[in-house]
Specification:
Helices cover 34% and strands 17% of the residues. It is built from 12 helices and 14 strands.
Length: 350
Amino acid sequence: MKVLFVMELRLNAGSIQAVSSYIRTGHDLGYDFAVYGTKINGFESIKFATDVDSFDHIIFIFESNLYWIKKLPLAHILSEAPRNRRVILDADGMYNPIICINGYDCNHENEKNQKEWIDYYDSISDKIIQPAIVPSQNPNVVSIPFYGYDPQNRYKNNTTKKYDLMYVGHNWWRWDVMQNIVLPAIKDNIDILNDICFIGHWWDKPPPWVKECDFEDPFRLDHNQFKNLGIKTKPAIPYNQVIETMDHGHINIMTQRPLLRNLKHMTSKYFEVFLADTIPLVILDPDHSELVYGSAGRDLSLHGSTSDKLKDVIQNKKKYNKIVDRVRDHISKHHSYNQRIQELENALIS
């Protein structure tokens, strides 16, 4: 099977880490995965190709931006790949009715916007895949987890930790979770926490254009709270440095935007954080955590009495390292890219 991914290439965001694992694992299994385009600096682990007609399936990965694809020679891609070979990976749950979580995190602003997305998807392909761990209620959607755990990326440097607590990810619809769950737990344990660092876009300030476009909500932030808690912020890093960077923290927080958490959509972060030598605390309810990580995942759920949980982890790292190892065993068996490739192949030929 030969699969060509067509995607908006972002060095420090999106699905590029997963695609890199598909390329590597696929090669080992006798499959051929590549990304549409020519070689670009910074994407050394990515195989590129432009001979569209030589691939069995073309997967368009949509993440937030609807019209990024217009930057590509779309007519050439569509003419070389008949409709029955084209598939869309709907990473952000746009091929759904309007969904709004907690009154602010929505997949569509209004019905006009929703129709625009649906019509555009339908103009490209009849097959829509969503990266969910539960079946979609939409009969036109195929659900497969898509993202997985790649043990070959496991980072074991055994270096001295720089931080007691880290968060590696962008400030995109994250403030409510941080303000209501993470920062109060940090505040209650500040006496036993040393250095804390958040790494990613927009933790220092929002993009300059947000006020002009009246689009401030996704980037909300209270600098005073960060300052009072002594939280350092650093810029985003390339995808191939994420795991090594997470390795600098005794504890790493994993979360995702409320909309995707509600849809049970997977992302690369679900598994990247377990590739570092760290203790991941996942902001998922215990049932959701167990669904992904097995029974041991419940013990890593930052849910309910979050201050007590964080304190327990800080004071009992050996205990939690054993729990993390149990989770790694589970996701190695149930979420490997060998399995992801088989699931993807089944979805493509069905």
